[in-house]
């Protein structure tokens, strides 16, 4: 397994990024200014994008693993890598997600704790309703991890 920082042509990973954030113009808001990492195990399995919020805080804006590779530890490995990578630069990392039990459980198992919510984030910022696990996403749930 290897993880590499992607510094150019980040859009070549758009198909994978869209698994975690299904509207391209939302990805465009953070892709250019974010640090991107790709995890390979033979071939590409997972990617993530991290942005700086302020001198003490960064945010995991996108993490996605190909569906056939999910549940095999790639996402957890990538989160462990980026939390170690940023621990000397930031005090905390946030991640925002929809209120989906499986995804919330994944982040909590990676050491994140619920922090706050942004009401109506998904309904206000996406052109069509987004459903995960049969539930429409409305609020953005933010989780925080001390680095």
Task: Explain this structure.
With 147 residues, the chain is α+β, with helices and mostly antiparallel strands. The strands form 2 sheets. It has a 7-stranded mixed sheet with strand order 1-2-3-4-5-9-6, sandwiched between helices. It starts with a strand and ends with a strand.
Record the strand order, biggest sheet.
Answer: 1-2-3-4-5-9-6
How would you state the average pLDDT, rounded? 95
What low-confidence regions span 5 or more consecutive residues with pLDDT below 50? Answer: none
Query: Between the first and last Cα atoms, what is the distance in angstroms?
Result: 23 Å
> Main β-sheet, in a few words?
7 strands, mixed
Number of strands: 9
Name the structural class: alpha+beta
Our count of helices gives 5
- How many domains in all? 1
Summarize the structure.
This protein has 5 helices and 9 strands. It has about 150 residues and is α+β, with helices and mostly antiparallel strands. The mean pLDDT is about 95.
Notable features of this structure?
about 150 residues, alpha+beta, seven-stranded mixed beta sheet, two-stranded antiparallel ribbon
């Amino acid at each position: 397994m290897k993880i590499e920082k992607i510094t150019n042509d980040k859009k070549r990973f758009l198909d994978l990024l869209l698994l975690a954030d299904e509207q391209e113009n939302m990805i465009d808001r953070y892709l250019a200014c974010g640090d991107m990492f790709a995890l390979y195990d033979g071939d590409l399995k997972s990617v993530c994008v991290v942005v700086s919020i302020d001198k003490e805080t960064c945010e995991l804006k996108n993490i996605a693993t190909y569906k056939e590779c999910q549940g095999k530890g790639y996402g957890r490995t990538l989160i462990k890598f980026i939390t170690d990578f940023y621990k000397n630069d930031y005090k905390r990392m946030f991640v925002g997600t929809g209120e989906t039990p499986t995804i919330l459980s994944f982040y909590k198992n990676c050491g994140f704790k619920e922090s706050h919510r942004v009401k109506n984030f998904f309904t206000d910022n996406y052109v069509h309703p987004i459903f995960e696990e049969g539930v429409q996403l409305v609020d953005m749930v933010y989780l925080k991890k001390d680095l």
